[in-house]
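INTERNAL AUDIT FORM
Audit reference: QA-55
Scope: verify that the stored structure record matches its stored sequence.
Auditor: D.O.
Record contents follow.
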Amino acid sequence: QLQLVESGGGLVQPGGSLRLSCAASGLSLGADAIGWFRQPPGKAREGVSCISSSGGDTLYADSVKGRFTISRDNAKNTVYLQINSLKPEDTAVYYCAAYRGHSCPGFVPYEYDYWGQGTQVTVSS
C-alpha cells in the first residue's frame, strides 16, 4: 500500500515562498505520475500541478503558472512543489496524490489512486 505524507506548509507573508514535499512509503513512486491539489476554505479541491513518472512532463493550472514549480527525486521517493510569490488566494490545504500510470491524467481528483493527508498553507500579513 502506498502512503503519501505532505510537509512544508505553514504561515507565510504575501510574496513569500514555501517548498512542499510529498514523501512516499510502502511502494516506489518511480512509476507514478504525481499531482498536487489544493482546497481553499469553503471551496472545492482543485489541481495545481502534476509531474510524470520520469519528471519529463509537467502540468500547471493557469492560476499558478510561473509561480509554482514541481519536481521529483525518485531516488528519495519524494515529489516537491516550490511555491513562490505567494498570494492570499493561495491559502489552502495542499494535497499530493499518486496516479498509477506514467503520464499525468490531468486534474480530475477521482483519477488519482492514493492521497496524502494534506498540509496547510496560509498566506497572510
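Auditor finding: record pair retrieved intact. The mean pLDDT is 96.
Action required: none
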